[in-house]
User: Fold this.
Amino acid sequence: MLDRAPLMPARVRVAYYVLAFQRLVRDRELSDLMLYTEAIKVLYLLADNAPRLQRDLRRDLEGAMLERAVGELAAAAARDADATRVDAQAHSRSGNGRD
Assistant:
């Protein structure tokens, strides 16, 4: 599905990435490294697609009210992706298991 995501409207891509992230966090089968790798990927995809959603919302009067929230979502997703990457590096160095 992720390979078809660029063809979807921005609102669908953002919703898909949020749902994918929720499923990912609940998957206890993933190793630490795989969890961190996938979480980073999903967070960066979310951060990348949120500005597109923001542009789409500008065309709609009701959407204009959501524009700021989407901008904050993009910034938060990018920060979380960066923080997760740093955590993954620290975890891989320390050899800690998943909580």
